[in-house]
């Protein structure tokens, strides 16, 4: 009772509270936390004996005299097996094993000298490394065959351009011939013969007027085709009539009527004479709205000083956006929606803001010599083709390094072109082939563009003097491709 | 003997299969009629053996090749193969219809010219009408003499046709050109007196602002349908007014270049095909689009209607000619197609037979099809190319009884097509 009372009063504690001092006398010695090192690899197991190693093997395991001799003559390292099968009629005839000590010693050496590292094996299915691309059949339509071809030119067909209504194409060659032909039949409607080589051709993208520009030596000639009738013809004529305010008659660039020596001067509207010694006009590119166009002229044979002009047709005014240009410029282009201007030099692509007149960005494709440039109709992507066979896809938002580098051509790429409405682009090369790619661009900024190689169009153009297909162009509303080759042929490719 | 021994295992098989035989009843509409009885034909027989059987039974003076129709399909393999494909049992009696094979066409001659021929027509008996890219319309007789030439267009003539070619008073030539106009030129006197006669057009039909791709006249010769690259169809009356003519209706729905507009025989309906991959049907009295056939990504290059007006044929740039059955209200599944190796540019249906079609392509071959066997053409022939040039694109075809006229890059070619007494199927 006394004790009970004492417990109730708290004088006696029935179980002493555990403190740090009275920890258990025994503890699991090996219960240390596992080391983060991988467990040592187990030693390789010794091989199990076979029938031949038996003291009494069947007769067929016993070596013949020659085999025995051969085995004895071989060095120890070269022997296929380290014993000779021997037959004893009973176990008690088996002598002591002479190699026992040696074997044990070697086994110990193995255990203590053999480096035992856990090698992680790379177990990757090679098929899983190939990206999953949709099948080309599901991405139709794209051009697959040559629907018509014409030996239109006697020398290299340098350039080709498609009219905005998709019915007419112009092609120009090295002898100065510019031919206007129907895309659907290939019938040649009109020919202009200039005395200089044709450097470039471009149609004005405007729908209310119809004319195209021909780039010659130090001159750009604007021509309207004669089939044009009615409202469009009068609108085109009135565009170049009179003397609008602001035209620079006294400047370096002279806008005059064509006074050249072409054999057919029908339809020539205007001639833009560039300053002397600026060289051949290598490229003409229109702005989306069709009022402005840029011309790029290169002195010498493509290596000399290059000059860029921006011409305005409504005011008949020309200006040079760059005072002095370092290096040779390969291509110039207007951005399809923003007031930006792309200049591709030999190594870099630079993007300028025309409104603020400053350099926005420099892109480094890593190509030794850029040959061609085209901008996606959305304006967020562009592709660059090079003479060193590479084609680079750039995302303007992403970085100044290419998003993708495609190296599929066997020779230098001559021209690249995006389709204005379909998700397609084409590249043509000196190997005589044209490659068609599917290029889907998503509005979602997080999704990367999908580029799928679709078709290699071969055999359309013969290679002459190491030059293959020199320019390709797409029709605006159909997935049809027009190409011009060094063999003087022009071809239309249809799905 | 060596051959025999080599083929022995094969021969055994043939024996085994030829023991199987089919009961067959032959029918025909030709004058070569077999005695009506049931024949037991070895199942391994094909067209050649069947044709020989008929030739031998009838003891025809000169061997005549025949083609065989088994339940509406032309027999291309052996009978056993056909039965296996169509799931016909050996005991069933097959009714085989036969007709004389289409002989390969013979070339009658050609009319050489400098420029391309955009259109031909031989609807006026014994005369050939051509529209050329040098903007002149010419009329030839069958011995290739130039009778008349019609100038007046300022652009290449892409389409020509006759309006009431058999009537003396209202016979006229309708021509459509790249200059955006169609012209009516009355031709009262087809036979020329001595030298070629220049003819003058009396009216030009003004509607289009772009080149014309086709003109068509209905069977009674009262209306003209013009189709232009601007996506418009114009319906005009052939009553020649004093001045230039305004259209009765402007049919507007196409969003691309229209490549062909044609009339139904009654003239109440018109059909048009376009590069925007659609075929549209128009009510010519009201001037409204009544129906549209949309083919996905198939820009159409030409349109033809079979003589029994049940099927429309449209050639498209993906190298097929598609068949659209007009009796079905809705298209179920993809239409049956005639595959081509090259860009098919022009089509022409046989004037009377409802299963014969000719198509011309850019590779310079005219293909003649029998719609009862669509896998391959019945006849293929190549047009001549100009000397020193490789271009031989075909741009136009016209077919009247026995005569097929081909116009293209090189020249106008005249081909004699053997006409046999046709099986007319109900």
TrEMBL record, chain A:
GO CC terms: PeBoW complex; preribosome, large subunit precursor
Record-annotated BOP1 N-terminal domain positions: 1-143
Compositional bias (Basic and acidic residues): 65-78
Gene Ontology BP annotations: maturation of LSU-rRNA from tricistronic rRNA transcript (SSU-rRNA, 5.8S rRNA, LSU-rRNA)
Record keywords: Nucleus, Repeat, Ribosome biogenesis, rRNA processing, WD repeat
SMART domains: BOP1NT, WD40
Entry protein name: BOP1 N-terminal domain-containing protein
Organism this protein belongs to: Serendipita vermifera MAFF 305830
TrEMBL record, chain B:
Keyword Repeat among UniProt keywords: yes
SMART domains: WD40
Residues spanning the membrane: none
WD repeats: 251-292, 357-379
GO cellular component: a single term: nucleolus
Residue stretches making up the NLE domain: 24-82
Protein name from the UniProt record: NLE domain-containing protein
Coiled coil segments of this chain: none
Record keywords, A-Z: Nucleus, Repeat, WD repeat
Keyword flag Nucleus: yes
Predominant location: nucleus
Leader sequence residues: none
Organism of origin: Serendipita vermifera MAFF 305830
Location(s) in or outside the cell: Nucleus, Nucleolus
A Pfam short name: NLE
